[in-house]
Design a protein that fits this description.
By secondary structure, the chain is α+β, with helices and mostly antiparallel strands. About 25% of the residues lie in helices and about 20% in strands. It has 7 helices and 10 strands. The two termini are about 35 Å apart.
């Protein structure tokens, strides 16, 4: 565990926050020059941690620039990043209002990162805690986050399963969460055009599977020779 230390120092910490992966997510989905290989490279260093599944993962927090501002309020980038957060190893932490794609406030100092969430105070003009009080963009984010997070709640393979990742190609990243009972294939296409993936490359984990249901859109894909992934789109496939 994280209490172990070469000098026998006991920190009493059962877990630590994963800043390296947070910074990698900010770089991977940055506008214009985002390179998803940063995620692969960071996870490849998991051997330095005694229990990487205990790491607390996050897109942003009270001391960092809000993630939606980091990606220049790009909704596709947010969905790709949130999908990664909910399906990679570790314990995901969501900073308040990140689930609604809240950007930095137009104020000076750290208050820009910690602005009020509308509806949390008696005199607020609107409440994001209701569908009617949210904007169309906020409702779209809320619905996306709700679908993915609700699925994750009962997905034991994501909580406790192994993670096998494949070297990204053409700004598209594939990894598989798997245990003895279930397999989930995650595809993050960070490119500006669709990608046709040859599935032979992932056979060691697909092991003859013929279909995968995308839990985000509730759509089933045939896993034949190739899988076409639309531009700037995540897929989370329950493989059968």
């Amino acid at each position: 565990n994280f209490r172990a230390h070469p000098d026998d120092y006991d920190s009493d910490l059962p877990s630590v926050t994963d800043f390296p992966l947070s910074f990698a997510m900010q770089k991977a989905f940055a506008p214009d020059d985002g390179e998803i290989y940063d995620l692969y490279r960071t996870l490849a260093q998991d051997h330095v941690y005694p229990e990487p599944n205990r790491l607390v993962t996050f897109l942003d927090n009270h001391d960092l620039t809000r993630f939606f501002s980091v990606v220049d309020e790009d909704e596709a980038a947010f969905k790709l990043a949130y999908t990664f957060l909910m399906t990679t190893r570790g314990i995901p932490q969501v900073y308040y209002a990140t689930e609604l794609m809240q950007p930095m406030a137009d104020v000076e100092g750290d208050g820009a990162k910690r602005s009020d969430m509308p509806g949390g105070w008696p005199n607020d003009e609107r409440s994001v805690f209701t569908e009617e009080g949210r904007t169309d963009r906020e409702n779209e984010a809320h619905d996306f986050v709700t679908r993915l997070t609700t699925w994750r709640e009962d997905a034991d393979v994501v909580h406790h399963g192994q993670l096998t990742q494949f070297i990204p190609q053409n700004n598209t990243y594939v990894y598989v969460r798997h245990d003895t009972d279930d397999t989930v294939m995650v595809v993050l296409n960070n490119a500006d055009e669709s990608r046709d993936l040859s599935l032979d490359r992932f056979e060691e984990r697909l092991q003859g599977a013929t279909s995968g249901r995308d839990v985000i859109e509730d759509r089933t894909y045939a896993l034949d020779d190739t899988l076409t992934v639309p531009a700037r789109t995540p897929l989370v496939l329950e493989v059968k």
